[in-house]
Specification:
Layout lengths: L10 H21 L2 H23 L5 H21 L2 H23 L6
Length: 113
């Protein structure tokens, strides 16, 4: 007999990680930007790790929160200075939404089973 544990997978977190990593890959493919590739893969990996941890324990938001908060600040500053919506504005906006989502997870009360 198998025991099946039902854990909620953080699909939004994994999607966010894929978006960040693919942004780095696209930056490299289009402009040959090695810093874009490195940053995209680094922050995408951190976001993926955070999504994995959140899937294992819904209270473990810290890596996801720090990653999305950092990207909100960095890409938000780039968007503010350049005015270019692509890619800085998109990543800043999506990262800000992730920060809000994670903040809500921190304040909501755990559900009793």
């Amino acid at each position: 007999m198998f025991i099946v544990f039902s854990m909620a997978v953080d699909w939004l977190g994994f999607g966010y990680a894929a978006l960040v990593a693919s942004g780095g890959l696209i930056g490299y493919a289009k402009a040959g930007s090695v810093p874009s590739l490195a940053a995209g893969l680094f922050f995408g990996s951190l976001a993926g790790l955070g999504a994995y941890q959140l899937s294992q324990n819904p209270n473990n938001v810290w890596i996801s929160l720090i990653t999305s908060g950092t990207l909100t600040a960095v890409m938000g500053t780039r968007f503010y200075n350049s005015g270019k919506f692509m890619p800085a504005g998109i990543i800043a906006g999506v990262s800000l939404l992730m920060v809000g989502r994670l903040a809500l997870k921190m304040v909501e009360k755990p559900h009793d089973k």
